[in-house]
Amino acid sequence: MYSSSNPNGYNKYASEQLHHQGGPPTGIPVSSSTEPYFSTSHDQDTDTDTHSHHPYSHGQVPPHLRPRAPVPWSSGLCDCFSDPKNCCITCWCPCITFGQIAEIVDKGSTSCGASGALYTLITCVTGCPCFYSCFYRSKMRQQYALEESPCNDCLLHCFCECCALCQEYRHLQSRGFDMAIGWHGNIEERNREVAMTPVPPVVEQGMSRDK
């Protein structure tokens, strides 16, 4: 150490240190270009602990991102007579049943009338509306994680169009949809039920006397 009585010696020492370090001190550690950087054992332990305590380390996928296992349909393909009214409507006017299904599957982006009219137009022009309706069966299966049974969606609609539409109609009904009022009607009905649900009053606990 240099005492205050010898300022020249202190200045000489400080200039030598600045020349050796290559610049004034900045508070940031500067590593030499000729010396490799080695992490300390404390840094390695901290990094190891961070990865070991992460809930989804080692390639694990969060539960909400994992693919859901396919579930069976609520009713069989040949259970058409469990709903005779829908069975008759689908047999004579499949465009009505398809329009109701398409509106629910599209979540209201297309109306029942528009989808039914397009279904009728394709039937009149090509005679094969199954190539249009099978798309909605595939879309519905993806939304609700349903099994592709008993065969491929396109084949099923080609050979059993009415039975497939009835099955899709019944499944949406089993999930609580009122097919007669459409998507927006179901949303309004559910919002009304939530608004009418009684909420118990919150009772604040007062001061109790010690007995």
Record field, number of beta strands = 0
**Shape annotation:** globular
From the alpha carbons, calculate the radius of gyration and give it in angstroms.
36 Å
| Average of pLDDT | 78
Calculate the terminal CA-CA distance, rounded to whole Å: 73 Å
Note the total helix count: 9
Main sheet attributes: strand count, strand direction, barrel closure: none
InterPro entries: PLAC_motif_containing (IPR006461)
Region (Disordered): 1-63
Biased composition (Basic and acidic residues): 42-52
Biased composition (Polar residues): 29-38
Describe the structure.
Residues 1-63 are annotated as: Disordered. Pfam families: PLAC8. With 211 residues, this protein is mostly helical. The protein has a domain at 80-196. The protein is built from nine helices and no strands. The longest helix has 15 residues, at 7-21.
Fold topology:
Blueprint: H1 7-21, H2 41-52, H3 84-92, H4 94-105, H5 112-125, H6 130-144, H7 153-159, H8 161-174, H9 182-196
Pfam families: PLAC8
Biased composition (Polar residues): 29-38
Region (Disordered): 1-63
Which features would summarize this protein structure in a list?
single chain; 211 residues; mainly alpha; 9 helices; 0% strand; globular; PLAC_motif_containing
Quick gist of this model?
The chain is mostly helical and 211 residues long.
